[in-house]
Automatic annotation (TrEMBL):
GO molecular function list: 5S rRNA binding; structural constituent of ribosome
A Pfam family annotated for this UniProt entry: Ribosomal_L18p
Record's GO cellular component terms: cytoplasm; ribonucleoprotein complex; ribosome
Keyword rRNA-binding: yes
This protein's name: Large ribosomal subunit protein uL18
SUPFAM superfamilies hit by this protein: Translational machinery components
Species in which this protein is naturally found: Candidatus Woesebacteria bacterium RIFOXYD1_FULL_43_18
Family of the protein in this entry: Belongs to the universal ribosomal protein uL18 family.
Functional note: This is one of the proteins that bind and probably mediate the attachment of the 5S RNA into the large ribosomal subunit, where it forms part of the central protuberance.
Cleaved signal peptide residues: none
Length: 119
Protein backbone atom coordinates (compact mmCIF):
# COMPACT_ATOMS: atom_id res chain seq x y z
CA UNK A 1 0.00 0.00 0.00
CA UNK A 2 1.11 3.51 -0.68
CA UNK A 3 1.47 6.00 2.15
CA UNK A 4 -1.60 8.06 1.11
CA UNK A 5 -3.77 4.95 1.14
CA UNK A 6 -2.43 3.93 4.55
CA UNK A 7 -3.07 7.42 5.94
CA UNK A 8 -6.64 7.43 4.61
CA UNK A 9 -7.28 3.96 6.00
CA UNK A 10 -5.99 4.91 9.46
CA UNK A 11 -8.07 8.12 9.44
CA UNK A 12 -11.22 6.13 8.63
CA UNK A 13 -10.44 3.64 11.43
CA UNK A 14 -10.06 6.49 13.94
CA UNK A 15 -13.23 8.13 12.65
CA UNK A 16 -15.24 4.91 13.07
CA UNK A 17 -13.84 4.35 16.55
CA UNK A 18 -14.79 7.88 17.68
CA UNK A 19 -18.26 7.72 16.08
CA UNK A 20 -19.00 4.40 17.80
CA UNK A 21 -18.78 6.20 21.15
CA UNK A 22 -20.24 9.62 20.28
CA UNK A 23 -23.96 9.82 19.48
CA UNK A 24 -26.04 12.98 19.36
CA UNK A 25 -29.67 13.14 20.45
CA UNK A 26 -32.40 15.77 20.40
CA UNK A 27 -31.38 16.96 23.89
CA UNK A 28 -27.62 16.82 23.24
CA UNK A 29 -26.85 17.01 19.52
CA UNK A 30 -23.40 16.20 18.17
CA UNK A 31 -20.93 18.97 17.30
CA UNK A 32 -18.93 17.49 14.43
CA UNK A 33 -15.69 19.07 13.21
CA UNK A 34 -14.09 18.64 9.80
CA UNK A 35 -10.66 20.06 9.07
CA UNK A 36 -9.15 20.30 5.62
CA UNK A 37 -5.78 21.80 4.77
CA UNK A 38 -7.31 25.21 4.08
CA UNK A 39 -10.68 25.35 5.88
CA UNK A 40 -12.47 24.19 9.01
CA UNK A 41 -16.15 23.32 9.30
CA UNK A 42 -18.44 22.72 12.26
CA UNK A 43 -21.91 21.13 12.23
CA UNK A 44 -24.46 20.45 14.93
CA UNK A 45 -26.29 17.23 14.10
CA UNK A 46 -29.27 15.38 15.59
CA UNK A 47 -28.41 11.71 15.02
CA UNK A 48 -31.86 10.43 15.99
CA UNK A 49 -33.41 12.15 12.98
CA UNK A 50 -30.25 12.21 10.89
CA UNK A 51 -30.53 15.97 10.32
CA UNK A 52 -28.00 18.78 10.44
CA UNK A 53 -29.45 21.47 12.68
CA UNK A 54 -26.90 24.14 11.77
CA UNK A 55 -23.43 24.55 10.37
CA UNK A 56 -20.72 27.16 10.04
CA UNK A 57 -17.32 27.36 8.39
CA UNK A 58 -14.41 29.75 8.01
CA UNK A 59 -15.45 30.44 4.43
CA UNK A 60 -18.14 32.77 5.82
CA UNK A 61 -15.66 34.73 7.98
CA UNK A 62 -14.02 37.83 6.57
CA UNK A 63 -10.30 37.54 7.16
CA UNK A 64 -8.49 40.76 8.01
CA UNK A 65 -4.73 41.31 8.01
CA UNK A 66 -2.65 38.37 9.20
CA UNK A 67 -4.63 35.81 11.15
CA UNK A 68 -3.63 32.22 11.65
CA UNK A 69 -5.83 29.26 10.82
CA UNK A 70 -6.02 28.48 14.54
CA UNK A 71 -7.38 31.95 15.31
CA UNK A 72 -9.97 31.58 12.56
CA UNK A 73 -10.99 28.17 13.96
CA UNK A 74 -11.65 29.82 17.33
CA UNK A 75 -13.88 32.38 15.61
CA UNK A 76 -15.77 29.58 13.84
CA UNK A 77 -16.43 27.94 17.22
CA UNK A 78 -17.73 31.19 18.70
CA UNK A 79 -20.04 31.88 15.74
CA UNK A 80 -21.31 28.31 15.82
CA UNK A 81 -22.09 28.70 19.53
CA UNK A 82 -23.98 31.95 18.89
CA UNK A 83 -26.11 30.29 16.22
CA UNK A 84 -26.72 27.29 18.50
CA UNK A 85 -27.80 29.45 21.43
CA UNK A 86 -30.17 31.32 19.10
CA UNK A 87 -31.77 27.91 18.33
CA UNK A 88 -31.87 27.12 22.08
CA UNK A 89 -29.14 24.47 21.92
CA UNK A 90 -26.96 24.75 25.01
CA UNK A 91 -25.41 21.29 25.47
CA UNK A 92 -23.70 19.24 22.77
CA UNK A 93 -21.49 16.18 22.43
CA UNK A 94 -18.12 16.91 20.79
CA UNK A 95 -17.10 14.77 17.81
CA UNK A 96 -13.50 15.37 16.75
CA UNK A 97 -14.16 13.17 13.72
CA UNK A 98 -10.90 11.19 13.84
CA UNK A 99 -8.68 14.27 14.13
CA UNK A 100 -6.36 14.82 17.07
CA UNK A 101 -7.72 17.15 19.76
CA UNK A 102 -4.97 19.63 19.04
CA UNK A 103 -4.44 22.84 17.09
CA UNK A 104 -7.41 23.97 15.00
CA UNK A 105 -9.80 21.30 16.34
CA UNK A 106 -9.00 22.31 19.92
CA UNK A 107 -9.33 26.01 19.03
CA UNK A 108 -12.80 25.42 17.57
CA UNK A 109 -13.86 23.51 20.70
CA UNK A 110 -12.54 26.24 23.00
CA UNK A 111 -14.26 28.90 20.89
CA UNK A 112 -17.55 27.03 21.17
CA UNK A 113 -17.13 26.80 24.95
CA UNK A 114 -16.29 30.49 25.09
CA UNK A 115 -19.45 31.20 23.07
CA UNK A 116 -21.58 29.39 25.66
CA UNK A 117 -21.90 25.75 24.56
CA UNK A 118 -21.49 23.06 27.22
CA UNK A 119 -19.67 19.78 26.49
Amino acid sequence: MRSKEIKAKRYMQRKRRVRAKVVGSAKRPRLSVFRSNTHIYGQIINDEEGKTLLSFSDIKIKKVAKVTKTMVAGQVGEELAKKALAKKIKAVVFDRNGFMYHGRVKALAEGARKGGLVF
